Structure formats: C-alpha cells, structure tokens
Amino acid sequence: MIDEKKLIEELRKYADELGTVRGEIELANGVLKAISIINEQPKVGEWIPVEERLPKNGGAYLITAINDCGGVYMDVSYYDSQYKSFSSDGVDDDNAIAWMDLPKMYEVRENE
Known about the structure:
The chain is 30% helix and 28% strand. A six-stranded antiparallel beta sheet has the order 1-6-2-3-4-5, with no helix packed on it. It contains two helices and six strands; from the N terminus they run H-H-E-E-E-E-E-E. The longest helix has 18 residues. The protein is of the alpha+beta class.
C-alpha cells in the first residue's frame, strides 16, 4: 500500500515545478489530471464516517463505535443492507460512528 496523501503532495510539487520553472504547462496539466484521477478512486484502508455513507453491500466490516459510557471501541460487525444497521453477536451496533472494509486474509504460501 502507498501513502496516497504523500504521493499527491509530491505530484503537486512536481506539477508546480513543471509549470512554473520549466514552462511545460501541458505536462503539468497531465500531472494535475493524474491527481484528480487518484482522488476519485475508492479509498482503501481509511475510516468512513457513517454520516458520510454506509456500505453498499451487507457483510462484515470493521467499525468504530461509542459505548453507553462514552468510551470508543473497535469491533468487527455485520452490516445488514436491508435494515441499514450494524450488529455484533446479534446485538445492534447503532452507536457505530465509522466503518471500513476488512483487510484481505493473509495468504499462506507453501514455502512458509
């Protein structure tokens, strides 16, 4: 995985150098277009606030939630797309504040 924000920062610096120092405006515009394409891509490994959007599909997700005492916790929770709610072990996680996809399972190789 790459640091997307760092990549965009470096590309912006490069586009600025191309446009202002070298006078290569078309190339600088191409770099800026690449940045906009990167920004349009789905975010991987980032928390998504539930106010922003909920998962499109039902399934298991990693959530951050607030318990009844105000403590923050993280849990794997099942999202029901029909009822638009999270639940863990049959208990509603209506206090979920953010979610993200679970990472892919580690792939065991024969040599390990």
